[in-house]
Amino acid sequence: MTFEQIYQQSVAEWNALWGGDKPCILVGAATCGRAAGALDILEVIHEELARQRIEAIVIQVGCIGLCYAEPIVDIIKPGQPHILYGNLTTKVVPQLIEDYLIKDNPRPDLALGYIGEGKLDGIPKLFELPVLKPQKRLILRNCGFIAPENIKHYIANGGYSGLVKALGMTPGGIIREIRKAGLRGRGGAGFPTWQKWSLCRRSPGKDKYIICNADEGDPGAFMNRALLESDPHSVLEGMVIGAYTIGANNGYVYCRAEYPLALERLTVALRQMEEYGLLGDDILDSGFSFHMEVKQGAGAFVCGEETALMASIEGKRGMPRSRPPFPASSGLWGKPTNINNVETWAGVTLIMQRGGEWYSQYGNEKSKGTRTFSLAGKVRRTGLIEVPLGIKLGEIIHEIGGGITASKDFKAVQTGGPSGGCLPATMIDSPVDYESLTAAGSIMGSGGLVVMDEDTCMVDIAKYFLSFTQAESCGKCVPCRVGTRQMLNILERICNGDGAPGDIELLEKLANTVKSTSLCGLGQTAPNPVLTTIRYFRDEYEAHIKERRCPACVCKKLISFYILPDKCQGCGICLRDCPAEAISGGKKMIHVIDQSKCIKCGTCLDVCPTRFSAVVKVSGKEIEVPEKPIPVGTHFNHNLG
Amino acid sequence: MGNNLSEILTCHKKRRESLIPILQKIQDKLGYITRGTVSEVAEYLKISESEVFGVASFYTGIHLTPRGKYSVKVCEGTACHVRAGERILDEVERKLGIKHDEITGDGKFSLERVACFGSCALAPVMVVNKDVYGHMTVSRVAEILRKYR
To answer: CA-to-CA distance for B103 and B110, rounded, in angstroms?
Structure first.
């Protein structure tokens, strides 16, 4: 079958979905949709359709990125626009099906928005919503709209046309096109993709390798998972294009084991590519052959580093080695190897499908194109987003993210995971691009954005990241192995209230040493969270050291819980729920926490009814409370310190 | 067990790169890597036992001790951390009476803290075998664990 025939067949199948007389129901069933109950919703939909004898097409799709509204279902009635429904429950779904599919009531109360022509009373246009309006969905164009396990859906939407175009070009021509686009590595460092490819292409040798780094290990990042689960072919197409350009005949997708659904969908996708002659010998009769397989990671953050990743594919301990030689000349099994991140490969696909010039219209001068981010933490609308590079941080957090949860104040945003840094609220107007983030002491990184509010302690965050990198350090080089441990020791003692004058300076000195002398990216960037928190939140470090006080009331050793005697009504809820049996009291008695028994779990604060709000969490002060429970109403002069 | 093992081994090429996939397959079948399997794998791939052990002990996804029938994992990713994931871990530890990386006396539950599941939008997250629980609260812990008891 020629590609033209495959394309015609795919378009026919795709159009039949929408052109028929049956309604179509798309259920978002990527990992986060599933965690929110998408598979239960799917089951209820099938049951309800059978019960009501409605004929409909039901398809599992990937993630549209509106994670805060999961589970999401998209219903398309013949001739009608898509209507997306969010926050669905198994209870409400049968009613929705009956109301919309039988009674023609589109239930605006449940709808998030609609896509397509026309106007629907009471339902907004989906892409006009504040969460989507500032976004540019290029990489994520298919996510949530096609069945990721059906290659025809991908092809019908322009899939593999980039590969067809590339196979008709010279490798040099492709490299020029990528250069024109201005694509830079999306794994973090931002190295120009065309340059990386030319180096590998020029390396002598017959056997060359292509690798996709899908070892998304940064805690707080899930962009690659979502893309692989929702549109795996968009990544794989880029890899075949890259292989053709560089002259590689074998390739690997190295995906972390924690992503079982992504692994499954990649495996299905590769099988389909082979079936349609898009992978294997003599691809689309071009004479070019390329074979690819999926390699499952085994749980090591350091394997995100390219030389460690290759060691892992070879069946060794995933430890990095010094460079040069760079993988472009000596990589997997000593052969020239080109390794790019998931999103970079998807960018290549897009550039070859739509053109380098078209791609370069997005972004700013030095950072071209769009970038996906996973927006998480204390923001109202968490999710997977895609924005043009150069967008302001504030626009992401306040418009797309809808601001901070629970009317707290925005304090910082963490970019780039354990290798990145925490940027303070004052930097809300800085553009999100490679250079600006680096200048601020952070990095673009793989794309995690974790938002923090006033309840987040920045010293605790630095300790958190350091404990992560310290545990994940492979131990090969001394600065990283010993340096991160020593830095962690200092941070632990600061958080425990045992900090000493000079600790901040010592931390800075150690951090700069680890940064400049470690062997690989893990150690070279591990100090970033510490250095940025010291740079922007030094006062918090000083409060911990000088006043033994945690301003955000997070560090357990520095906080205390008290029951305010003039507010406690003696209801007994906290007494019953306290896991440490640290609370004494009785009916209509003011309850008292025994500070020596308190484990600072915060349960009492959670369970105290809001109409009493009698439990407080404080740091650096004591509150005068009765020594023993006394009858409610007998205590009048408590001191808030 | 011997039969199971040779069945897995013969599915893989006798090459060094098969080592991690073999260990993962064995673990899927048996739950963890025993001392005995280390020597058999080494024998099959014609590499030393220390090399097999070196790899098995390097990766956190490969276990050298038994897991519980229900493996409870509490996410300690960044998003979960800022949304107080540690309190969930503390509560699971209290309810199961074990610390992380331990297994209950009856072998029913084991507990791990993991770096990130990539379900950050649902933070804090807890996973029991393959069931994912998002937006966790301390008070939901007991109720969820009860389902598996």
So the answer is: 4
Among the four given CATH numbers 1.10.1660, 1.10.10, 1.10.287, 1.10.3120, the one describing domain B2-58:
1.10.10
The highest-level CATH class for domain B70-146 is: alpha beta
- Which own/partner pairs from A538-542 qualify as long-range (CB within 8 Å, at least 24 positions apart)? A538/A504, A540/A457, A540/A458, A540/A459, A541/A458, A541/A459, A541/A494, A541/A499, A541/A503, A541/A504, A542/A504
Residue of chain A nearest B135, judged by CA positions: A36
Separation of alpha carbons A284 and A169, rounded Å: 14
Amino acid at A335: K
ipTM of model? 0.93
Compute and round to an integer the Cα radius of gyration of chain A.
Answer: 28
Whether residue B144 lies within 8 A of chain A, CB to CB, comes out as no
Residue A639: pLDDT band with limits 50, 70, 90: very low
* Structure confidence at residue A258 (pLDDT): 87
Please, which residues have CB within 8 angstroms of residue A588's CB and are 6 or more apart in sequence? Answer: A569, A570, A631, A632
> CA A66 to CA A87: how far, in whole Å?
10
What share of chain A has pLDDT > 70, as a percent?
A: 99
Q: Which two tokens stand for residue A81?
A: 């626009």
Pick the residue from chain A with its C-alpha nearest to B77.
A219
Q: Enumerate the β-bridge partners of residue A250.
A: A209, A291
CB-based contact (8 Å) between B78 and chain A?
A: yes
Please report residues of B whose CB lies closer than 8 A to that of A64.
none
Give the number of other Cβ atoms within 10 Å of residue A341's Cβ: 25
What's the sign of the alpha-carbon dihedral A129, A134, A137, A143?
Answer: negative
**Other CB atoms closer than 10 Å to residue A301's CB: what's the count?**
26
Contact B17 A382 (CB under 8 A): no
Partner residue opposite B82 with nearest CB, options A312, A319, A456: A456
Domain spans of chain B, in order of start: 2-58, 70-146
Distance CA A376, CA A383 (A): 7
Instruction: Label the pairing between strands B126-128 and A24-28.
Output: unpaired
- Say if CB A60 and CB A27 are below 8 A apart: yes
A-chain CB neighbours of B59 within 8 Å are 298-300, 318
Q: How many of the other CB atoms lie within 10 Å of CB of A509? A: 10
Helix H, strand E, coil C: the string for A433-480 is CHHHHHHCCCCCCCCEEEEEECCCCHHHHHHHHHHHHHHHCCCCCHHH
What's the rounded Cα separation, in Å, for the pair A294 and A242?
A: 17
Q: How confident is the model at residue B2 (pLDDT cuts 50, 70, 90)?
A: low
Exposure string of A305-316, with b = 16+ CB inside 10 Å and e = fewer, is: bbbbbbbbbbbb
A118 secondary structure, DSSP code:
S
Cα of A33 to nearest chain B Cα, Å: 9
**Which residues on A lie below 8 Å from B21 (Cβ)?**
296
**3-class DSSP state for residue A82?**
strand
At residue A445, the pLDDT reads 83
Most A CBs within 10 A among B14, B78, B88, B137, hence the mutation to make, goes to B78
pTM: 0.94
The Cα-based distances of A558 to A39, A545, B58 in angstroms read 44, 11, 36
Q: Which 67-126 residues of chain A touch chain B by CB within 8 A?
A: 67-68, 70
Chain A residues touching B119 at Cβ < 8 A? 31-32, 35, 222
